[in-house]
UniProtKB/TrEMBL annotation:
Ranges where the PPIase cyclophilin-type domain occurs: 10-178
Domain RRM: 245-324
Organism: Pichia sorbitophila (strain ATCC MYA-4447 / BCRC 22081 / CBS 7064 / NBRC 10061 / NRRL Y-12695)
Name of this protein: Peptidyl-prolyl cis-trans isomerase
SUPFAM superfamilies: Cyclophilin-like, RNA-binding domain, RBD
Example of a GO MF term: peptidyl-prolyl cis-trans isomerase activity
Gene Ontology CC entries for this record: nucleus
Gene that produces this protein: Piso0_005508
Keyword RNA-binding in record: yes
Gene3D superfamilies: 3.30.70.330, Cyclophilin-like
Keywords: Isomerase, Nucleus, RNA-binding, Rotamase
InterPro entries, per database record: CRIP, Cyclophilin-like_dom_sf, Cyclophilin-type_PPIase_dom, Nucleotide-bd_a/b_plait_sf, RBD_domain_sf, RRM_dom
Cell compartments where the protein resides: Nucleus
Functional summary from the UniProt entry: PPIases accelerate the folding of proteins. It catalyzes the cis-trans isomerization of proline imidic peptide bonds in oligopeptides.
EC number of the protein: 5.2.1.8
């Protein structure tokens, strides 16, 4: 696995084909790393065919931004100059085929005929015929490997009209966890990483969550911003923020158990909950989970010590702060 998207309807895990499509994979992974996709809506839904995402300010802004819009980059010793789009040369392979869950960037003609330009706008195939309805050729670079229930919710969402095909009730990306990245980071990456604490004013104004409309009073800034936090985190109440005591762990070995996690993370404080997410059908580990501490300082100590240097059952695992408080929500609904 390479990226886990937390969305307002659940998690989507995407594998990228970084060996076969290094330029496209680089663009996607680095955009995830700088939180470019934060609070980006899914839109342009073609039922049983495809859905689009990757433009955070949609519909106010319809064009995406490639990672090169922030500076020059180097991929596998080849340099790419700064520009809003990343131009790549197509290899002599069939990139037009896809199946359910395929992920690809929408492309446009580059500066010369053999080249194609991509930005941050990507599509997820919801059926095997996605390539047949493309107004812009899609360059496939990845595959959804978990989160098909979320894709099913997107596919069955009610749309605004046949022209815009925008969802009447938003489904948005709330956080992106990069689980594996084989590429070296550009030097400018830390300086352009955006905050994932609060949506922009444009994103708030364009949010569509009908059940929360009656709470929103645009004349009261604090209430309006509070509602935005509720939308962003899928919170049970707008005055509850994502828990600072919960860590997200990923790239686990399939044999790793909650007991194994607790043995490692328990060295830094009192672990009050330890959960590894399993496939609902097979009950096999999906190789990621959550560890919750009793105190914020304990979580911060564990994160500072274990980030990028924790090996459990032979796997160098990912440790990050979780943006999800679904566990809190479940407990308060009991």
């Amino acid at each position: 696995m390479s990226v886990l998207f937390e969305t307002t309807e659940g998690n989507i895990v995407i594998d990228v084909h970084y060996k076969e499509e290094p330029e496209l994979s680089f663009n996607f992974l680095k955009l995830c790393k700088i939180n470019h996709f934060f609070f980006a809506p899914f839109f342009a839904l073609h039922k049983d065919i495809k859905v689009s995402c990757g433009v955070p300010e949609y519909p106010d802004v319809s064009d995406g931004r490639a990672i090169t819009s922030y500076g020059d980059i180097t991929i596998n010793r080849k340099d790419y100059r700064k520009g809003n789009s990343l131009e790549i040369e197509l290899r002599p392979v069939d990139n037009g085929s896809c199946d359910i869950g395929s992920v690809g960037f929408s492309s446009s003609p580059g500066s010369d005929s053999p080249r194609k330009a991509v930005d941050s706008l990507f599509q997820i195939a919801l059926g095997p015929d996605a390539a047949q309805v493309e107004d812009q050729k899609c360059l496939w670079f990845g595959k959804v490997v978990d989160g098909f229930m979320v894709l099913d919710k997107i596919n069955n969402a009610v749309i605004e009209d046949k022209k815009t095909k925008r969802l009447l009730r938003d489904i948005r990306v709330t956080h992106a966890h990069v689980l594996y990245d084989p590429f070296e980071d550009p030097s400018f990456l830390p300086s352009v990483t955006r905050s994932s604490e609060m949506p922009t004013k444009s994103q708030i104004a364009n949010s569509r969550f009908p059940e929360l409309v009656d709470k929103s009073d645009s004349s009261n800034k604090s209430t309006y911003n509070a509602v935005a936090l509720e939308l962003m985190g899928d919170l049970p109440r707008y005055d509850i923020k994502p828990s600072p005591t919960t860590l997200f762990v990923a790239k686990l070995n399939p044999i790793t158990t909650p007991t194994s996690l607790e043995a490692v993370f328990g060295r830094f404080g009192t672990v009050i909950a330890c959960n590894i997410v399993k496939d609902q059908n097979t009950r096999k580990s999906l190789c990621y989970g959550f560890v919750e501490y009793s105190d914020k300082s304990e979580a911060e100590k564990a994160y500072g010590t274990l980030q990028n240097k924790c090996i459990i059952d032979g796997n160098n695992i990912v440790v990050d702060f979780s943006q999800s408080i679904k566990r809190y929500k479940r407990e308060n609904q009991k």
